[in-house]
Each structure stands twice: as structure tokens, then as C-alpha cells.
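Bench notes, bay 3.
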Amino acid sequence: MSLEVNITKKLAHFTLNVSFRTENECLGLLGASGCGKSITLKCIAGIVQPDSGFIVINGRTVFDSKRKINLPPQKRRTGLLFQQYALFPTMTVRENVEIVLRHRAKPQRKQETDKILEKLRLCEFSRQKPSQLSGGQQQRVAIARMLVSSPEVIMLDEPFSALDSFLRLAVETELAEILSSFSGTILFVSHNRDEIYRLCRRMLILQDGTTAAFGTTPEIFCHPETLAAARLIGIKNIAPAFAVNIRKINVPDWGVILETNQDIPDGTNYVAIRAHHIREAQTDETVNCFNFNVARKQNEPFRVQEMLTLTPESGQTKTPLIRFISGSQDPFFSSQEIHTVRRLCIPSSHLILLKGE
């Protein structure tokens, strides 16, 4: 089952302009709060009407501004799981699920409700109300209510945001298992890059209503291409830069000129490197190797973070601050003391060249 979206919607601080096509997969929508992720889902579900464009679900046009088509939510066959689950507090688990089938005959309602409650292991809670359930159980009820209507597209709007951190991984694993049997398209909205990486084969990154990146999840994490995408996938070491020639780039904030292992694309104005790719220079290695001071060190339970400064070279009048954080658990990093001088390498093979405003 496919989903094709090409819409615009003028909002308070920007204009949403989203275009993508996906089919029989879990597509992640990653972005900061307020970037347009949730409003995109609401437009697809029919809760919010776009200003222009079209939405096609499995070959059916559910919205088209030019053809004056705008099907109501109940006719779009989409399922939307809200952040807070939106369960009816005065209804039991069974009643919360069965209400979706209220227009069907009573025997059919009971049969289909029994089936979904059994599938999601909710039978023993069927007479309880939402307030008597854990966060993970409430989410299963909301998913049951969504699936019982046989949607062609499932949309999950930050489904773990209402859960305590220690519950998230367990509930995520359970959700992935439940959704693995769904044969249609799933849209998974999050501002958590790790959730997207674990659950979604492809991803779309939104920034202020526009697409900053769209492609396979591993490819975007390896080659984000834009400044916005690099920031959202968690790269910490990013700085403005400009090309010196086709294979050298100047990074004034870091006080270095770096060699690249690829031709620098036109328009490149930022460079980045992941913390764990910084390494100790090998004997006689010179390319992108510099002496650094460990200016600050922060020990965490499972890693060590260090802020590094470039040591003054002959003729320099000031020491530029290098905004590098070594996120390594390697004993080499963890054993360093403050102000220790180390010769480190910024491998050209791991440099990320970016375009951004």
C-alpha cells in the first residue's frame, strides 16, 4: 500500500511544504519540536486541510486542492496514534476499542474487538479503565483501537513521549513486534534520532516545514549533506568552512585547514566530523594531524567527553578553541588528564561536507 503526499500549508511561523512517496514501509519523520511533523500527519488524516496540493492513499485521492477533493477522516482509512493516546477515561478498555466499530452490527463489533484484544494481549484488562493501566498498556489499547478499523496507513506521533525513560525501550520493542505484521505504510514521527534509526528503513528530516533530507536511514546518518540534517542526527562537531582548493577546506573556528578524500562540492560552507572518528595520530602520520590540549574532561557512566583546543604553533598569537567532543570509551581517551598534549588525527575519510544557511 502506498502513500503520496505533496502539500503546502501556511502556518504561524513558516509555510509547510512537504512532498514524499512511500510504500509498505516504516518511514521516519525526524525534526525538532514545531517543525511541521505533527501537522503533516493531521493533514494526511484529514484533521487539518492543506492550502494546496494532493494526498493519495493506495491509489485513492483523499485530498486534491485543484479537483476540490477533501474526504473526511472517517473515509480516509488512516490510523493516527496521538502522543497522549486520547483514550476515553470513563470507558473500559473494551469500550474504548469497540466504539470505533459503533456503526457495525453488535455481533461483528464483539468478534472484531475480541480478536484485536487477544492479539495485543489485552483480554485480561478489558474491563479496566485507562487510569488503571500502565503507560505501556494504555499505548497497546490505543494501538488496538487504531488497528481494529483496518487502516491502510498507520501514523504514530511521538508514541513514546508520554512514557518514563526506563519504559521506553521495552515499549518500543513491543510496538515494533505489533507493527511487524502490518502490511501497509507506517509513518513514525519523532525528534529522537535513535528511535528513528532503530525502527525506520527510510527517513525524512523536516526543518521549519521543508525537507532537509530524504532517503534511507543509514545513508542519511552517514552522509547528511545539509547542516540541518547533520544537527538533527546528533553530530556535535560542526563548523563553518570554505574551500581552499578542490581537496582542501579551511575551518576558521577550529584554526585548521583540512584535506578531504573527495572533491569539495560547490556550495559547501560547513564541515563536520563525529566525535568517535577522532583518533590518535600514527607514527609519522601528517595529514590532518594536529597537537591538541585537553581543555575540559567530563566522565559519564559509559563514555568520556573531552573538549580540545589546538596548541599554539610557532608564530601564532592566540589559541583557537576546537569544539570537538570525544565520545569514545577507548582507554586512550579515558586516561587523558586536563591540559595533556595529544597528537590527534581528523581522518579525511570521515569528514562530512555540508551545505547550510
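Next record in the batch:
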Amino acid sequence: MQYKIIAPNTFNSVVQLPASKSISNRALILNALSHNGKGIENLSDCDDTNVMVEAFTSGSSLIDVKAAGTSMRFLTALLSISPGEWIITGTERMQERPIHILVDALISLGARIKYLGKIGYPPLKIKGTALDGGEIYLSGDVSSQFISALLMIAPTMSKGLTIHLEGEIISTPYIKLTLGMMAQFGVKAHWSNRTIKIHAEDYRPVKYVVESDWSAASYWYSMAAIADSAHIELKGLFKNSMQGDSKVAELFNDLGIATEYTNNGVILTKSNRKTKKLFHNFVNEPDLAQTFVVTCCMMNIPFLFTGLQTLKIKETDRIEALKSEMKKLGYLINDRENSILEWNGERCEPEKEPVIKTYEDHRMAMAFAPAAIKLDYINIAEPKVVTKSYPRYWDDLKSVGFSISEQKL
């Protein structure tokens, strides 16, 4: 299945963004750990969150997280301290995504976890048990989800937990998001230099409302930047958000988009500002990389993006995926050191009928859709992949004037 997408050149729109997946999934873990009967308001209605809800409500000891990496990591940690025996698995791609760093750390703290297939990868068999805690050492350049998974269960350990991070620390905002939400549930951590210390204590049940998703907002910023004119109101965003991807507002300022904060969200409008080349280290916002690669190419703005080392272990190898799909559109992007993408304006002959492959990656579909504004149209394969984080994405595009038709492969 694929979609043929034709876009308007101007926008005067109001969009209710989906709830944050990152916040929703953390809130579900913290809600469970606080034995909270109050529930969570405005929970994300996406695949990643739904599989976690299913894990809590199904009553089954077999948990299939499908393609949800966050759920795999967070639930592995939670199940390791939950009474019972569990099997956690996922899609074929999920079984290719390494989890040994988290599993090794949990086992060192007393967890009982076995690999059911290839060593270092899901599926896992877990026998829940109380953990003593103590001190562990982790490389700071591992996925922040490994660190967040450990942090959230740390207060349940009899000795608490001290994590020493070694080397470069990546995705710091996601760690800060986890610690900030833990504080909202009554547990405060102590982070000094490279050491995070959490004492044993109980979480406090609270009424929790999830804010809208700044990652989802990035695609609307992209549309505004590429379009001839734009006035787009995005509801549910906060200026002082704990989400690292709220950085998108500042970054798009260099691409000619001004952000006005209101009581209900933000309003995007065009400005006269436009950089000649965009430089940015995405170490703290890796999920924004695809959006900016596509946007800059469509605006003919060269770029040098660094800090992309985690892109190779996402839903797909996003570095290779971006190079391949942008080449179909006539843009030659270079990479080096497994962490850098650069475009110096080099072009090639585009394919006559390019179809953007999505690689089971929701962000490939959503990041490439705005390119239809610059092109006559764009074809995107397997478009339903957006349900992973933004199920209403195509409906929202239709509501602002996009024409989307289903095509046969």
C-alpha cells in the first residue's frame, strides 16, 4: 500500500497535536510504580503507548511490544521487579535491536533475565524479583531509554541506585525528562557531574495530564517553512516543556519560522530570517534529524548535522534510510563517522516516479510528507506506520488541504 500526496502551498490552519508518546510511556511506568488508581489524562493514542497499556491490562505473561522500542526497554526494567515470570518479545526488527546493555545492568543488580534467541537481543524471559540496587557504571553514549528504564525503577531498590555515566552523555534532555517526571511523582534524584543518585523511597500517586508532542510539532514546522505562506496554530504545547524536542522552535527560527506562544499552544508564521547553511549537533534531539534533512533539502539550504550516532539503532538505520530516499528525490547526502550527515547542495537526477520507503519507521513517513509542498506530489509506501506515534497524521493533513489517495504497489 502507498499514498500519493499532493499538498497546498499555503496554510491557515489550527491543529490539535497528539499527546507526547515520550511522556505517556514514562507516565504509565511511574503510575504503575506509584500504585496509582487515578489514571492518566490525555494519554497518547499511538502504537507505542497502546502496547504498554495492553501489557498492564491483558493479564498475560507473554508481552509483545511489536515495534515499540521505548516499551521494550521500559517494560524490561519494570518486569524485572514485578512478581511472576514473563516473556517479552517484538517484531523481527525489534529482535535485531540490541538490549544487552540494559539487561547486563539489571542482572548486575540481581535481576533474573535470560535470552530466548540471539544473545544480547529480544525476546527475553524474565523472572521478577526484588533488587538490592547499589552502584553501576554505564557509557553515557548509550540510548537514554536504557538509562531512563533503570532510573524509574531505582527507588524500588532497597539500597537505591547510583549510576555513573562515563564518556560523552547523549540525549540528555530525555534523561532530564525522566527525572523531572519522577519528581512530579514524588521522587527526587541528585545529578552531579556524571553521577545520578536515587534513594530508596515510595512514589506518590498524582493526577497526571500529558502535554502535546513537540516531536509531532516538527512536521508542521517543516510544512510552514517549505510553504509559500503559513499561519499554523498548534494546540497543547507548553513553552517551558520538559521535552527535549521543544528545541524545534529555536531551530526553525533559522529556517524562517517564528513561534508565538499562547495560552493554548503556539502559532507559527513566516519571518524574513533564513540561514545560508544550517549547522547543528542533534545529540540531544536525534528524533528531529529526519525532519531537518528533508526540510533543508526542500528549501535548498545546505547543512552539516552531527551527534547522530543513535540513528543507526532506531526503528531502522536512519542514516542509510535518509541517504537512500533523498537520492530518489535528487539529493546526494554524505555521511561519515556513523554520526554525521552533510549536504553541500550536490544534486543528481531524481527518479521519475520515486516511492519513499518507510522501513517500518514512523518518522520516515511523517518527515517526507511535507516534501510534497515543493514537489508536484510525493508517494509514500506503507503510510500506516505513522500509528506508532501519530495515528491521526494523515487525517490532520487532509484537514488542512492535502490530497491523499491510496495507490496500489
